[in-house]
Structures are given as C-alpha cells and as structure tokens.
Amino acid sequence: MYAAGVKSRPTTDRKSAAMSPRVARRRERMRASLLAAGARQFASRGIGPVSVEELIAEADVSRATFYGFFSSKYSLLEGILKPIFDTATRAIRELSARPPGEVVDGLVDVYLSLWEAHREGLLLIPLVDPETFRHFGPQHRALQSALLDLLLGLERADLLRNGSAQYSLKVIARTAVQLLRVYDGHPAAAALFRDALRGLLLRAH
C-alpha cells in the first residue's frame, strides 16, 4: 500500500490514461490472435491433440498472456464457439419478420455470412465430443429453437419439401456446413449453395 499523504505525480497519471486505450487495443488483438489460432488448429486437427504450447506459438504470445485470457484450451474453445451460436441465433430470430417465401434465402444469407466470418469455427463444431459440447448446451438449444420456429412457419405455409419442420431441421444440421465446405473456393460458391439448400428444403412449385 502507498503511505498516507504520498500523492501520485500528475504526469504519470496522464501518461497511464493516454496509454490505456492503446493497451486495450493491443490486448484485444492478442485475444483475437489466440481465437483465430485455436479455430484453425482445432478445425484441422481436432481438439484433443492440440496443446496450449502450440496455440501460443501460432498466436505468437506468451504463456502468461494465454492464461490471462483463458483458463485452458477448452476455455478458448468456448470463446470461439459461443459467439457463433449467439450470432446465428440472433440473425435467425430476425428472419421471423420476413414473409415465408423469403425465409430460406435469408437463412442462406445467414450461413454465408457465418462462413465468411467464422469458417474454422463452423468446421470444428462436428469435432467437439459430447462431454465438451455440453458446455454449449444452452446456446445450441437456443439456436435449434430459433431454427425450428422459423421452419414451423414454412411448414404452416406448406412450403417445405418434406412437409416437416423437424425433418427440415435435421436436413439443415447435417448438410448446410458440409455444402459450404464442398463449394468452398468455387467461383459460384454462394449461388451453388443457395440453389442446393433451396432444393433440399423447399417444395417445387
């Protein structure tokens, strides 16, 4: 503790205050670097084989910096996946205001946006083991609920190819990311993905 009556020098206070936004930006860059390194490593190799040492080497940060942000590699995994679930759920909820005939195109746009921003994160979701995945249970259930509500509207409008919101939810869960992966790098990837998902979900008229 500082002795009573000893005052900090104003110049030091001003310097610290001026530096704090720069320090905050630097910390955010280091955190973002760790998240990006984790997403790449986990998506390409799985979660189990990747060590903290490999993560800090790729992100070019110290061990102390890593543990200043995350308690373990699983904590880092949460930092990667939870924003994806939250972003997807919020965007899908917003689609409920659209007419039923525009919903699937909106859903395609949501997936394309997620692929653009969180490619590795989407790819690693199927690699997460059930024990680890339970940490994302609330976010996953919220996403499924948002999707199901959207699909129920299409079911009531008799627009679904298979006639069932539940089956259409399974179709999306098992094919959407895989289709994005298949068409990744193709010059017409977005259009091909849109046509494929529309064909899987919508009744031909």
Blueprint of the fold:
Layout: H1 10-45, H2 52-59, H3 63-69, H4 73-94, H5 100-124, H6 130-133, H7 137-156, H8 165-183, H9 189-201
Helix pairs in contact: 1-2, 1-4, 1-5, 4-5, 4-7, 5-8, 5-9, 7-8, 8-9
Describe, in plain words, how this protein is organized in 3D:
The structure is a single chain. This protein is mainly alpha-helical. The protein has helices at 10-45, 52-59, 63-69, 73-94, 100-124, 130-133, 137-156, 165-183, 189-201. Helix 1 (10-45) crosses helix 2 (52-59) and helix 1 crosses helix 5.
Assembly state? single chain
Largest sheet, strands/sense/barrel: none
Mean pLDDT: 88
C-alpha-based Rg, rounded: 22 Å
**Which outline best applies?**
elongated
How far the N terminus sits from the C terminus, by CA atoms, comes to 77 Å
Strand content: under 5%
SSE topology string = HHHHHHHHH
Q: Structural class of the secondary structure composition?
A: mainly alpha
> Helical amount among residues, as a percent range?
over 70%
Please count the beta strands (DSSP E, at least 2 residues each): 0
Parts with pLDDT < 50 across at least 5 consecutive residues: 1-18
Q: Figure out the total of helices.
A: 9
